[in-house]
Specification:
Order of helices and strands: HEHEHEHHEHEHEHEHEEHHEH
Largest sheet: 10 strands, mixed
Number of strands: 10
Number of domains: 2
Structural class: alpha/beta
CATH superfamily of the largest domain: Bordetella uptake gene, domain 1
Shape: globular
Radius of gyration: 21 Å
Helix content: 40-55%
CATH class of the largest domain: Alpha Beta
């Protein structure tokens, strides 16, 4: 056996050993939004099962702020050894186009590992607002331009862009109030400090069911099984309107492929388990379970899609 062949063989053995022995200590899973946000809910469903499967603790670390950039930056700059991961929503792809300056390069610094689930947004309003459907809301906004307030999870988040698309398509004038994640935004919406927002189903369907918020429409192309009575925004008079979020697992670029592959395989297996699927579906999320290679291609397509949306809406941030 030549030295080069022997070297390749030994490298392969070492890589296999790396994947099989991982992890040997606690793994930190960064969720870049506050507790109670959609990505936090999904991360806390998956992390304990990863711990059970791989024999070490997977601790969810909420690093909220700047529409998810603080947590994403922390993960991107971490050692690529598999012990710091990022569970992030679709909003991180918007940042690549929306923000002129970021302290990390989304395309170069983070490696897609697995796509766990997706979820539509619900257009919810405070119950005191005299709007029973999307058409009512648009009419009200046009009658009182610049007086209604909408909350978002932060500048550049998918809920922010979703409402801006609605405004662009309808000509409604509604003022943006950014928050540091879904929970504080929903809290102020329930209190009547703002009048409406797009929020993912995992975060607000319970508030709709208990009457603290009123749902007007859902942002997906088809109705949600979790709330089949709720019409889509598109069928409510805004043709072709569609906006969803997804929840994916990432690692710093350079994380050894055997580790990436093991995490990808286990995450997909976990999402496909009946109890996990049941919990996600009950909250309006769609279990996906997309492996690394497929997720990488999907991630690139999402960068392109949301880049076009940002340019069309005309929003840019420092």
């Amino acid at each position: 056996m030549s030295r080069s062949v022997l070297g390749c063989f030994l490298a392969l053995l070492c890589a296999c050993a790396t994947g099989q022995s991982y992890p040997t200590k606690t793994v930190r899973v960064i969720a870049p939004f506050p507790p109670g946000a959609g990505i936090d809910i999904v991360a806390r469903l998956v992390a304990p099962k990863l711990a059970e499967a791989l024999g070490q603790q997977f601790i969810v670390d909420n690093r909220a702020g700047a529409a998810g950039h603080i947590g994403a930056e922390s993960a991107a700059h971490s050692a690529p050894d598999g012990y710091t991961l990022l569970f992030a929503p679709a909003s991180i792809v918007i940042s690549a186009t929306l923000y002129k300056k970021l302290n990390y390069n989304l395309k170069k610094d983070l490696e897609p590992i697995a796509l766990a689930a997706s979820a539509p947004f619900v257009l919810v309003v405070h119950p005191s607002l005299p709007a029973r459907n999307v058409k009512d809301l648009i009419a009200l906004a046009k009658a009182k331009p610049g007086t209604l307030l909408y909350a978002s999870t932060g500048n550049g988040g998918t809920p922010h862009l979703s409402m801006e698309i609605l405004k662009m398509q309808t000509g409604a004038s509604i003022v943006h109030v950014p928050y540091k994640g879904t929970p504080p935004a929903v809290t102020d919406l329930i209190a009547g400090q703002v009048q409406m927002m797009f929020a993912n189903t995992l975060s607000v369907l319970p508030q709709v069911k208990n009457g603290r918020l009123r749902a007007l429409g859902i942002s997906s192309a088809k109705r949600s099984a979790a709330a089949p009575e709720l019409p889509t925004v598109a069928e409510s008079g805004i043709p072709n309107f569609e906006a969803i979020t997804w929840f994916g697992l990432f690692g710093p670029t350079g994380t050894p492929q055997p580790i990436v592959q093991r995490l990808s395989t286990e995450t997909v297996r976990i999402v496909q388990q009946p109890d996990t699927r049941e919990k996600l579906l009950a909250q309006g999320a769609e279990p996906i379970g997309m492996q690394q290679n497929e997720f990488r291609a999907y991630f690139k397509s999402e960068l392109t899609k949301w880049g076009k949306v940002v340019k069309a809406v005309g929003v840019t941030l420092e």
